[in-house]
Amino acid sequence: MGIGLVDPILPKISAALDATPSETMLLFTSYLFVTGIAMFFTSWVSGRIGVKWTLIAGLTLIVVFAGLAGLAGSVDAIIGFRAGWGLGNALFLSTALAAIVGAASGGSRQAIVLYEAALGIGMAIGPLVGGALGEISWRGPFFGTAILMAIALVAILVLLRFPKQSAAERAAARAAAPSVTASFRALRHPALLALSLVAVCYNFGFFTLLAYSPYPVEAAAQAAGMEFGAHELGLVFFGWGLALALTSVVVAPVLTRRLGLRPVLFATLALFAVCLGLLGVFVASLPALVSLVIVSGLLLGVMNTALTEAVMEATDLPRSVASSTYSGVRFIGGAIAPAIAGPVAAALGVPVPYWMGAAAVVVAILVLALMGKHLAHIGAERGANEPQPELAEAQAIGAGDAS
């Protein structure tokens, strides 16, 4: 829920702190950039201090920095606090599913279903709660996030238990943990590099939509003589999040199983590029903007799951390393879009950021096509006797979808 709480209040922060849209969109940039960089190191950190303490460290950072953001008196201060929030986000997201599966008594498959369902519900409800709190004050969603994460922190401290390990077992686990540079060295693998480039371009489009859209939607509503505040924006992004959650958990696995990974990737990227292009064309129409934002959620849910599954199948690297590398690169790609969208809109016009996002997604399609020889093996059926790496794949999907 904490991820989506802030989106509906971006215009309200601009008004309250006399900040430009370009400045307030940097709340996404600082958060995503630090999250992305930290993702390269989280598997190493959890290997050294353990899953539980990694979760505790992540949640503590989120509580502290979300609370400080709520107390901030300037947009620059919030941008800085969001960076600390991003570090906590990386530590928590990278280990949450491993903790759930490790603590579950009903088997990993049931735990994974519960995790994905909870993630989807949180993604959808977050903007709704953020809009409601934002109607009271722009500070409300920050304090709301701090309270939510404090509840999660207490729950982990009180309820989360793992089997005790001997000193020898702990030493063996630390010795088997990935090295601090493993995620960077993983980019030497052509298939992972190709999919990482696709992820950078795709997430440029993704976060153009997510971070920039509140401003055109609000402007279109004002032009139509409608009152469109944080609550109404929260409803729009609730629809977006609900669509994303449904397709990522329910629709994407069916499509990739029946059609194959690469066709689903090509088709979804093409449709998303069209969606972004249409957002630019109909940027002055409130009904069109709202409809296209929600429809894009359907596409993004499929894309997130399919792209992550492709990453997991593309290499023989340890799955935790592949996941950390991919997640780090895609978050950094997402961080670039909000930093560019605001200045571009001010200089060239309101539709242009959407068209740039569409162009970036087209580049992702070209990369996927041109580097196809390195990806020909993805989506091939596993042998009947080959184990299904449910935990590792779902970990990666969780880390990827949380953007």
Automatic annotation (TrEMBL):
Topology within the bilayer: Multi-pass membrane protein
Keyword Transmembrane: yes
Residue ranges of the TM segments: 25-46, 53-73, 85-105, 112-134, 140-160, 191-213, 233-252, 264-283, 289-307, 328-348, 354-372
Cross-referenced PROSITE patterns: MFS (PS50850)
Pfam families according to UniProt: MFS_1
Alphabetical list of Gene3D superfamilies matching this protein: MFS general substrate transporter like domains (1.20.1250.20)
Key words, A-Z: Membrane, Transmembrane, Transmembrane helix
GO cellular component term, pick one: plasma membrane
Main location: membrane
Subcellular location as annotated: Cell membrane
Molecular function terms, GO-annotated: transmembrane transporter activity
Domain Major facilitator superfamily (MFS) profile, chain residue ranges per copy: 1-376
Domain of life: Bacteria
UniProt protein name: MFS family permease
UniProt organism field: Leucobacter aridicollis
